[in-house]
Specification:
It is a single chain. It is built from eight helices and twelve strands. It has a six-stranded antiparallel beta barrel. A four-stranded antiparallel sheet has the order 5-4-2-7, with no helix packed on it. It is of the alpha+beta class. The protein starts with a helix and ends with a helix. A hairpin with a 7-residue loop joins β9 and β10. The longest helix has 40 residues.
Length: 363
């Protein structure tokens, strides 16, 4: 009798869901299975229900988080100086390598020019090589004279010494040129460090100095952020966190603003947990094509499937619905909803039977 009551309840749930389809009235898509809704989103029905069907209740349920930028860089000069030019304003979007702000560099450029002249100078090498050639000729003549009884042994030793010195002078000349080239590279680096360039692509959040103002070394003057993608950090119970791996799909629904839900992915699970709170940090990365600001509250569910697999399956489901003509998307959404309801109903029956057996009741 107990089993019959539970089966009747399951059938009633399915009938309640299917009834609107018979009259051609498709609801806007149920929310997550525990009753939490998509909120004030502009999610299409078909995509909404497909996402619900794929994610279900999620691994460990639903988690709340606040988004933050994926990059937040406070950029500073490594030296003191005076600002020459500011090339960006707050709100500007820049690519990696874009110049942002410069210091006065007249003195450094003069030093760079001097280093370039020294590095290009070949006279020391040419002089040393000519002297070595002369000493070699002198040594050859001395050897010839000594073999004929003309030059003495002392003359021969002096000729050899002068030749060896000339060889060392050539080596020293090449070392000096290498040092000049290293000095040129150093001066170039000194000039380059007077310009802050964007280390990553993003958006300028703030500029704290203007042309003519002085700056101290290692004091932030430009703040750069990147909000696509966004990062959400979840505090997850250890038993649940162990079931989350990098690459798994995460469904993100924004609470503060309307808009479609986004499919992100797990990108980090902390190797160290918080013993006091009994939680482990899990970081989720979510695309932000609409460039929503960071700091928004969201609800997150993690699926066992990978983010790439979920995106592919959702796209395939919507494409298949689109090939069916008018109303096909609604039918696909209804089909996914009915399937989810059947799964929930079966789960309810199983849980009811297990509870009855644990209480000693006879089904």
């Amino acid at each position: 009798m107990f089993r019959g009551s539970l089966l009747c309840m399951a059938c009633w749930l399915v009938g309640w869901l299917v009834a609107p389809l018979a009259t051609g009235q498709l609801a806007n898509g149920r929310a997550f299975e525990d009753g939490a809704s998509f909120g004030a989103t502009s999610e299409p029905d078909g995509r909404r229900v497909l996402l619900e069907a794929f994610f279900g209740t999620g691994i460990g349920g639903e988690f709340r988080a606040v988004s933050r930028p994926s990059e937040h860089r406070g950029l500073a000069f490594p030296v003191r100086g005076r600002v020459r030019e500011v090339m960006v304003e707050p709100g500007d979007r820049v690519e990696a390598g874009t110049p942002l702000i410069k210091l006065e560099d007249a003195l450094e450029r003069a030093s760079l020019q001097l280093a370039a002249i020294r590095a290009a100078d070949e006279t020391q090498i040419e002089t040393a090589e000519r002297l070595m050639a002369f000493r070699q000729t002198e040594l050859d003549l001395t050897l010839q004279s000594n073999s004929g009884g003309g030059a003495s042994g002392r003359d021969l030793r002096e000729a050899r010494l002068n030749h060896d010195r000339a060889v060392l002078d050539v080596q020293a000349a090449y070392i000096a040129r290498a040092e000049a080239e290293a000095g040129l590279a150093r001066e170039r680096l000194r000039v380059e460090e007077l310009t802050i360039v964007a280390p990553v692509g993003g958006e300028v959040l703030s500029v704290s100095k203007r042309a003519g103002e002085g700056v101290d070394e290692l004091t932030s003057v430009v703040t750069l952020v990147n909000i696509d993608p966004l990062i959400l950090e979840l505090n997850v119970p250890p038993a649940v966190a162990l079931g989350m791996e990098n690459g798994q799909a995460a469904l993100v629904v924004w609470d503060d603003v309307p808009g479609p839900a986004e499919v992100g992915q797990v990108v980090f699970r902390a190797p160290v947990g918080d013993a006091g709170a009994r939680r482990i940090l899990v970081r989720v990365e979510v695309p932000n094509p609409g460039r929503l600001p960071s700091g928004l509250h969201a609800r997150v569910r993690v699926a066992e499937a990978s983010a790439a697999e979920v995106r592919e399956r959702v796209a395939a489901g919507l494409a298949g619905a689109g090939d069916g003509g008018d109303g096909a998307a609604d039918r696909a959404a209804a089909s996914a909803r009915v399937g989810a309801a059947l799964v929930n109903a079966g789960r309810t029956v199983d849980e009811g039977l297990s509870g009855a057996l644990s209480r000693g009741e006879r089904p």
